[in-house]
Design brief:
This protein is of the alpha/beta class. Helices cover 40% and strands 21% of the residues. The chain has eight helices and seven strands; from the N terminus they run αααβαβαββαβαββα. It has helices at residues 2-9, 16-27, 35-47, 62-69, 82-94, 131-138, 166-183, 207-211, and strands spanning 52-56, 74-79, 101-105, 119-124, 142-151, 188-193, 199-204. The longest helix has 18 residues, at 166-183. It binds S-adenosyl-L-homocysteine (SAH) and magnesium ion. S-adenosyl-L-homocysteine (SAH) binds at residues 31-33, 57, 59, 62-63, 78-81, 84, 107-109, 125-127.
Length: 213
């Protein structure tokens, strides 16, 4: 109810490519980020003057194109699915953002992260059962005071819903484990917000300031 109320008041997206990607995603069950989720990220990018972004989970390129259009950041995004990868490349070309968005067609868990460089923001939005692995692996690519944002942490409210299906239950357990893990990372200041499908914001602590406390 409140979500709908706010959706009606907030300014709607007008960029025609983003609007068409959104309706494509809806029609084809591609799980793209919600309006409030992407707005939260865009405002963080703006406030923190973020210049480089690593995204895990490209899908059709909706979130990366959206972040690129609304900033001057360069983005590296990783997608393991070939069909999704191809679609993302097509969409990024349509947006004429090839020079600022690089898509890598690989499994993020198999990639050599030391080759990727350093980033001001890491957006984790891939296989939901693997978020702890992604976090531990890619935090080494984060600049000092950088941000890690992870999506889908309340997973269509399933974290608070009784579930019978064994696989789904297992998946939700892993999301719950990630949530407990992420708030526990002492080198990050983390809070999980009820934005979109549940989103954590983890700010890497300044090592020197933090140690002197
Ligand atoms: N960030 C996108 C949505 C991503 S959906 C947006 O908001 O617009 C999640 C995507 O992650 C899927 O396309 C899936 O194929 C991809 N994915 C899942 N596990 C992955 C992995 N281990 N490595 C790379 N991509 C992965
Ligand atoms: Mg997501």
């Amino acid at each position: 109810m409140v979500k709908e109320y706010l959706e009606n008041i907030n300014i709607k997206e007008t960029n025609s490519l983003l609007v068409s990607l959104k309706s494509y995603a809806l029609l084809n069950d591609v799980p793209i980020i919600t309006d409030d989720g992407i707005s939260f990220i865009k405002q963080m990018i703006n406030i923190k003057q973020i210049k480089s972004i690593l995204e895990i989970g490209t899908a059709i390129g909706y979130s990366s194109i959206n972040m690129a259009i609304n900033s001057d950041a360069v983005i590296t995004t990783i997608e393991r699915d070939k069909a999704m990868f191809n679609r993302a490349i097509g969409n990024i070309n349509l947006a004429k953002l090839q020079s600022r968005i690089k898509v890598i067609n690989e499994d993020a868990l198999e990639i050599d992260e030391t080759m990727l460089g350093k980033f001001d923001l890491i957006f984790i939005d891939a296989a939901k059962a693997q978020s702890i692995k992604f976090f531990n692996k890619f935090k080494t690519c984060l600049n000092d005071n950088g941000l890690i944002i992870t999506d889908n942490l309340t997973f269509h409210d399933l974290v608070v819903t009784p579930i019978r299906d064994k696989n789904l239950k297992q998946l939700v357990r892993k999301i719950d484990a990630f949530n407990k893990f992420v708030v526990d990372q002492t080198d990050f200041d983390t809070y999980i917000y009820s934005i979109g499908d549940g989103m954590s914001l983890s700010i890497k602590k300044d090592v020197i300031k933090w140690k002197s406390r």
